[in-house]
Write a structure and sequence with these properties.
Blueprint: H1 9-13, H2 49-74, H3 82-113, E1 135-141, H4 146-163, E2 169-175, H5 180-197, E3 203-207, H6 214-226, E4 232-235, E5 241-242, H7 244-256, E6 260-264, E7 268-269, H8 275-286, H9 288-299, E8 310-313, H10 314-320, H11 339-349, E9 353-356, E10 363-365, H12 371-387, H13 399-434, H14 455-482, H15 484-489, H16 493-526, H17 545-569, H18 571-576, H19 578-585, H20 587-594, H21 597-605, H22 612-615, H23 619-630, H24 640-646, H25 648-656, H26 670-680, H27 685-691, H28 694-700, H29 704-712
Parallel strand pairs: 1-2, 1-4, 2-3, 6-9, 7-10
Antiparallel strand pairs: 4-8, 5-10, 6-8
């Protein structure tokens, strides 16, 4: 990427279109929603939705009741102990979780093989509809590699251009970047993207200089400034890619169904290079459809929103999704981190339909490259989901929307529950080992009662639990066999079966590590620690080995202590816990092994963990690869100060994109004030680089006076 060449002054400085404000009131969780004449049930809701939910949820409850009865039979029938009651209650809570996933997967399997998963008049093939409404594609970014992000956006732009419907879409790069070097690199990449595509009237860039409320605030600010000009907005993540045909079909569905507020696609994970990313990619591609088809089948018009790869009716979002702060201080109070669930719930509360269309392909994302990266992201998601405890009482929410939040909370709370369940089992065994049993009790009996845990019943409970837990994977494999094209894309029936075995074994070893990570996350949040906001790595899973030792050594020690305790109590208990113990004890080499790109490549060469999107790559993903391969590093310096000094056109464009200068009475930016003083006392660029902090550097580059002063410095 060479120095910035601007076509003319008009195009150079038009980074944003004319503003078209749209009111987005902050919602009151305690007041009734504004229905604006809409009914409580969207017209797009399936007529038999009550029967669907009764089948899925009712079956899960019956299955849980049966499992609880079987578990009760395992315990000693002669008496009731506190530990026994605790273990039974924990089993019911945890089994209900996997039972719902099981019954939902059965529904998903039936919907998948019956070629469902669409609705709203959407078709996967055939002529593309013509669009009459305006759509905005929104790409929020936060300290992401700019050239990588722009490659994905360019692929979407080019794919849309091929549909002939590009004129119905505008693209907005919404930056919340705080690193000044990345910020200026974003501007370089944005200007180059405009020049390469000729999209001066379709591609826009805006950086927020006060990034309050994170992504929700970023999108909300766009709605309030530009939302009035667009009927629909497509939300992306920095790693999102969507084909032009998919976007056109989604936009047309919104035009046909004016009561729909949001359509969520099923993003397919692609581009995995490390073994961990490839495991996530394979699991999402093979198991994901069975799960997604199931929840789409019984959620109906009360679907959920995952924050990206979805199209939203701008008016519905502005009318209903203004996010208030929840009472209290972080981590439970303040801005809601997992805002997407809440936004969907609020729109549904206002009478808008929220739908998922898992059968519509052409929607892609990437996976974090290592367990360490997932842990960083999960910590933020955990805090956001636990905040939903304060959102659950919101007046007027649909009960399915509340269920979405409960499931989201449970996704993290179940980890400490599993840990307590394991420890309770050890304590029960320890109690039986040391406590003297009462053979007759207070009642006179002819024969003594021999307290015991029934091993036959325990075996049945274990087998039944494993069937319920693993059945969705078996159903997914059967569905894959019935789809010849996808089966071939996964390497064929035998290699796909081998991949499922590999994923199940390695995933089973990783599960106890993830359990402890999430447990520590929940504990950290409960003790008042905020998660912060960290940029996410996407293309490299390499973690220094000593960092892995420092992070996961405690898990190894815990596994050794847990194993020793289990062995002392009972060798049979130790062998029952072996799968959990192996994952914990070998957590360090396991994390290092799965974070390796070379190991991931070896599995690919062996034909394992393949997905159709890499064996027969879709056109839009080919465009991304080609753009990334052909992209050359910029000749400009990486440092923002030196880059602006090296290219006059870039400096002019940068200053044109700055916000209005501060007026008397406006809040004072302390970093900017201090930075300008340091700048005035400096004579060379090197001197300024040494003096300014990162925040001061960003603040100085956020004002025309600061940039002009930088340009006047000597080397």
């Amino acid at each position: 990427m060479d120095a910035v060449n601007m076509p003319d002054s008009t195009q150079m400085f038009r980074a944003l279109p004319s503003e078209s404000p749209l009111d987005m009131p902050v919602q009151d969780f305690h007041a009734a929603p504004n229905m604006a004449g809409r009914g409580r049930t969207p017209v797009t809701s399936p007529r038999n939705i009550v029967l669907r939910r009764l089948a899925v949820i009712g079956s899960a409850l019956l299955l849980t009741a049966y499992g609880a009865w079987r578990t009760h039979k395992v315990m000693d029938e002669a008496g009731v102990s506190t530990l026994g009651v605790i273990m039974l209650l924990l089993f019911i809570a945890l089994f209900m979780w996997i039972a719902l996933a099981f019954t939902s997967s059965i529904a998903g399997f039936c919907s998948l093989v019956a070629h469902g998963g669409l609705g709203l008049g959407i078709s996967k093939s055939g002529p593309l509809p013509q669009l009459t409404r305006r759509n905005a594609v929104l790409l929020p970014t936060y300290n992401e590699p700019p050239r990588r992000v722009m490659a994905g956006l360019k692929a979407i732009y080019d794919s849309l251009q091929e549909t002939g419907e590009l004129s119905a879409f505008d693209f907005f790069i919404l930056s919340d970047t705080t690193n000044p070097d990345v910020w200026v690199e974003e501007e370089v990449a944005f200007l180059a993207l405009r020049e390469e595509t000729g999209g001066y009237d379709h591609i826009f860039y805006r950086r927020r200089h006060n990034n309050v409320e994170r992504k929700a605030g970023n999108l909300g600010e766009w709605v309030r400034r530009f939302g009035g000009a667009y009927d629909h907005m497509v939300t992306l993540d920095a790693d999102s890619v969507m084909s032009g045909a998919t976007l056109v079909r989604m936009a047309a569905a919104m035009e046909r169904n004016p009561g729909v507020g949001l359509i969520q696609t099923l993003p397919v994970i692609t581009g995995g290079t490390t073994l961990f990313a490839r495991l996530q990619q394979f699991a999402g591609r093979v198991y994901g459809p069975v799960i997604a088809y199931g929840i789409a089948w019984w959620h109906g018009s009360e679907g959920n929103y995952w924050g990206h790869n979805a199209i939203i009716r701008t008016r519905a979002f502005a009318e209903q999704a203004g996010m208030p702060h929840v009472p209290g201080k972080p981590p439970f109070g303040g801005h809601i981190l997992s805002h997407d669930f809440v936004e969907a719930a609020l729109m549904r509360r206002g009478g808008w339909g929220i739908h998922m269309v898992p059968a519509l392909d052409g929607s892609y994302e990437e996976s974090p490259p290592s367990l360490t990266d997932v842990a960083i992201r999960d910590r933020r998601w955990c805090q956001g989901n636990l905040q939903h405890v304060k959102v659950l009482p919101t007046k007027g929410l649909h009960w399915i929307s509340r269920m979405h939040m409960i499931v989201g909370i449970g996704a993290y709370v179940t980890s400490p529950l599993w840990l307590v369940f394991l420890l309770t089992g050890i304590l029960i065994s320890l109690q039986a080992h040391f406590e003297r049993p009462e053979y007759f009790g207070e009642t006179k009996l002819l024969y003594p009662h021999w307290p015991h845990v029934d091993p036959v019943q325990a075996k049945y409970v274990f087998i039944g639990t494993m069937i319920v837990l693993l059945a969705p994977k078996l159903l997914a494999y059967i569905a894959l066999l019935l789809d010849r094209e996808n089966c071939k894309g996964c390497g064929g029936a035998i290699r796909a079966a081998g991949s499922i075995l590999v994923e199940t074994l390695i995933g089973g070893l990783i599960a106890p590590i993830a359990m402890l990570i999430q447990t520590l996350g929940v504990f950290s949040i409960l003790t008042g620690h905020d998660s912060g906001w960290n940029a996410q790595r996407r293309d490299d899973g390499g973690v220094p080995f000593m960092d892995i030792v420092r992070q996961y050594g405690r898990f190894t020690i815990f596994g050794l202590l847990l194993g020793a305790g289990a062995w002392v109590v009972s060798p049979s208990l130790f062998f029952w816990m072996t799968p959990v113990l192996l994952g914990l004890v070998f957590s360090i080499p396991l994390v290092a092994f799965t974070s390796s790109r070379n190991v991931g490549l070896d599995f690919r060469k062996a034909g394992l963990l393949l997905v159709p999107e890499e064996t027969n790559m879709p056109d839009v993903l080919k465009k991304v690869e080609q753009d990334r391969e052909s992209d050359e590093a910029s000749d400009l310096p990486e440092d923002a100060l030196r880059a602006l000094r090296a290219d006059v056109g870039l400096a002019q464009a940068h200053m044109a994109m700055l916000p209005p200068e501060r007026k008397a009475g406006d809040p004072i930016n302390v970093d900017q004030l201090v930075g300008l003083v340091k700048l005035s006392e400096s004579h060379t660029v090197s001197e300024v680089e040494h003096k300014l902090t990162v925040k001061e550097k960003a603040a100085v580059l956020g004002t025309r006076k600061g940039v002009e002063s930088v340009l006047q410095l000597s080397e």
